[in-house]
Amino acid sequence: MQIRGDSSVQWPGGSIVRLEQEGYRSGTYSSQLNRLLEKYSDILTVEVLGESVLGEPLWAVRLGKGAEQVHMNAAVHANEWITAPLLLRYVEELAARRLAGGATELDAVTLWAVPLSNPDGADLAQDGIPPGCAWAEQLAAWNGGSRDFRRWKANIRGVDLNDQFPAGWELERERRGVAGPAPQDYGGPHPLCEPEAAALARLTREAGFSRVLSLHTQGKEIYWNYRDCEPREAEPLAARMAAAGEGYQSVKLTGSDAGYKDWFIHEFRRPGYTVEAGEGVNPLPPEQYDEIYRGLAPVLAEFIQGPR
């Protein structure tokens, strides 16, 4: 499968998934996916889950041969775009070890990864309103008249995708108090109205994941609970994930609804996690990328291993 992207992107030797000072756009992401497919054609496959509001493909990367299906997603929030190359780099690391005869954890599981869940928003947060965008005037107004979208978390229609899921959606809308499109915290007119959130929900229901992880920034915290719906094994695994990382904490979160992991725990009664990678103020700077990855990769590895 050839993935549409910026074919001019050429990386030097070493890791395919890299982050430059200029940031990380959907075109770079697609180009890196192409190169991963070329190098690891026997290890991983890529499927289209749907399209974003602006028609960008929503890619799911699958690797592993195990009967147990697990899932990770990233870049649900636009200004947390750094999580996309973090997750894709981990996918590349697993594929490279598998090709070399390692990554034995993939004997037991099949990983479905969606590294760039909000491509329109990620590009908007870095480059501003795209030329010819149908929502150009509205976006400027929703952003308080500013053309600086670096703090923007929502998708291109001003809907916060991590307030889109049908688990306490009405409670979260009331708590947020945001009545219309905005840079963050607007959950939309109804749950799963946005194609990006609907695609994640559809994949989750069809694949029957035994556990899921949604990667965000920042704070080095791991959230594992939702209104006492989580299974007993959820907290011990969160503790192991935190212990594996550098400076991470397992946190029992209250006062939060309508997120992806909230919905997964509520609907399936299986372990679901939100991992807040890195520290600082979003968007985290590219200079921190390597350091964040070193501390995060062991957390993701522990998640793949699962409850013991």
Automatic annotation (TrEMBL):
CDD domains: M14_Endopeptidase_I (cd06229). PROSITE patterns: PEPTIDASE_M14. Its cofactor is Zn(2+). InterPro entries: ENP1_M14_CPD, Peptidase_M14. GO terms for biological process: proteolysis. The keyword Protease applies. Belongs to the peptidase M14 family. PANTHER family: PROTEASE FAMILY M14 CARBOXYPEPTIDASE A,B (PTHR11705), SLL0236 PROTEIN (PTHR11705:SF143). This is Peptidase M14 domain-containing protein. The lineage of its organism: Bacteria, Bacillati, Bacillota, Bacilli, Bacillales.
